[in-house]
């Protein structure tokens, strides 16, 4: 499953180069995976309510072109891998007006209890694990 | 007591006007009150460990001149009022190179338990209440 | 004219109290005035392209209740005053699910050239001045 | 040359997991390279004044442990490669109290004119190119 969602660039997200400051694309990745989960049928909020956190363990981002203030950007999110203890998302950020690819990257996550212990999602939240497994295919 | 501390403007804090985005001064206010508490002898971290939160209930800020990337700025913080249930800070942001006043404002706070109930600081954290009372004079 | 727009709280906007960090409401004010201008028929981008900046000279915000991660919030924006050299916006942030008022405040702006000189909007961008005047009524 | 600088975690940088939100480490990388340049004898501000921008073309970050509010963190920065048209930094973020490695990663940059054209640093800013070449060894 690919989830897409659209955001509009905030003035606050620009920097003095006149373009979006580079870490904001990675904040948009967070919006992307939130929407991927919602569109799969689960929500990240539910997951946290069940006591499971999804901290980022790795991130990478490659920048191709710049978003500018007030641009609408499409965040496209897919799951690259989903194992009992980890999951990895892939994102592309596209300018809506012309479809140009602006940035792309990955985040990797482990499943953690609120006490900071690694947990298998299948054990901690079996229904959500099932939903994610099906949507990841 | 007046507490002063110095920060250096991050590129991330600028916007496409080429100056610091306006809400960052209010983030610097947060640094100011953290340092005021530290210099008084308490810390905000201790306060939270005792179960007391200090959420912002009001903020105002007046902008006089702009900070720019890499500028060093001085945050000057004083307590304007301290009552059993509330406290109010006053801040001034000055450019270090020439002492120019860039922005000034206030934040007001109540004392809250982690469950979201209003609490008297004197009751919840009497030692810290004492320290703040003395340093506020 | 009242302009409304909806945002969804990002994880990045929360803090360790488990609620939205207070300056983010003021970033949402920026989204509010961007949308007010768009709905009036002008855009802030056009204004900047005509060489007119709208820096914030004053901000205040009063916090009533907290937004949380993934909440949808409505930003309602109106113009409180519009004079040849200045304008003032009023904002309310409401939780979408129950309409509860979370925060409200103002920003004041002057009209500035890119060289930092105060300018009358009527002179620098007469068509946009006309649009704003009509929509402010 | 290795440049080190220390920052203190802001409340604003935490999220509802009670730890620093992951993109902030990458903002700290920016502080790291700013300080590396300063300690080498150049400054990024000078570079921009000479018309050269250093946009990020790639970033990666690996997270090992979490920084928390009010922690002091050391940013250690080195240059991994410096070619006529590109440069790559390597960063480590360490907790000051016990030296624990919290995160590490890289940023890659090209040299760009303000008009967005790729430029050789040696040509656009020969003195700074010389300083960077010597400090990179």
TrEMBL record, chains A, B, C, D:
Residue ranges of the TM segments: none
Entry superkingdom: Bacteria
Entry keywords, A to Z: Hydrolase
InterPro entries the UniProt entry points to: 4-hydroxybenzoyl-CoA_TE, HB-CoA_thioesterase_AS, HotDog_dom_sf, YbgC/YbaW
Protein family (similarity comment): Belongs to the 4-hydroxybenzoyl-CoA thioesterase family.
NCBIfam families for this protein: YbgC/FadM family acyl-CoA thioesterase
Name of this protein: Acyl-CoA thioesterase
Native organism: Fodinisporobacter ferrooxydans
Lineage: Bacteria, Bacillati, Bacillota, Bacilli, Bacillales
């Amino acid at each position: 499953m690919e989830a897409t969602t659209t955001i509009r660039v905030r003035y606050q997200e620009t920097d003095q180069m006149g373009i979006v400051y580079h870490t904001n694309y990675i904040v948009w990745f967070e919006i992307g995976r939130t929407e991927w989960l919602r569109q799969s049928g689960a929500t990240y909020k539910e997951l946290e309510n069940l006591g499971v956190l999804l901290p980022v363990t790795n991130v990478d981002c490659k920048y191709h072109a710049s978003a500018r203030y007030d641009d609408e950007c499409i965040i496209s999110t897919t799951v690259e891998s989903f194992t009992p203890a980890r999951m990895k998302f892939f994102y592309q950020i596209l300018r809506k007006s012309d479809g140009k690819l602006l940035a792309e990257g990955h985040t990797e996550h482990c499943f953690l209890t609120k006490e900071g212990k690694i947990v298998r999602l299948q054990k901690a939240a079996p229904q959500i694990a099932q939903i994610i497994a099906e949507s990841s295919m």
